[in-house]
Amino acid sequence: MSDQEAKPSTEGVGYKKEGEYIKLKVTGQDTSEIHLKVKMTTHLKKLKESYCQRQGVSL
């Protein structure tokens, strides 16, 4: 067996790399927009806290 046959390929399978981001655009009822750039590993609680801080409201 050669080395190429022994190792399973992970290319094209859909694995996410560490440090990839999601870009979000939140549009409020008054048409104000907030843009957020979030890592794939960020907890939702931290995202909500950041949004509330920018809006000036409590969580």
UniProtKB/TrEMBL annotation:
Signal peptide: none
InterPro entries (alphabetical): Rad60/SUMO-like_dom, Ubiquitin-like_domsf
Gene3D superfamilies (alphabetical): Phosphatidylinositol 3-kinase Catalytic Subunit, Chain A, domain 1 (3.10.20.90)
Matching SUPFAM superfamilies: Ubiquitin-like
Keywords of this entry: Isopeptide bond
PANTHER family given in the database record: SMALL UBIQUITIN-RELATED MODIFIER
Protein name, per record: Rad60/SUMO-like domain-containing protein
Organism: Castor canadensis
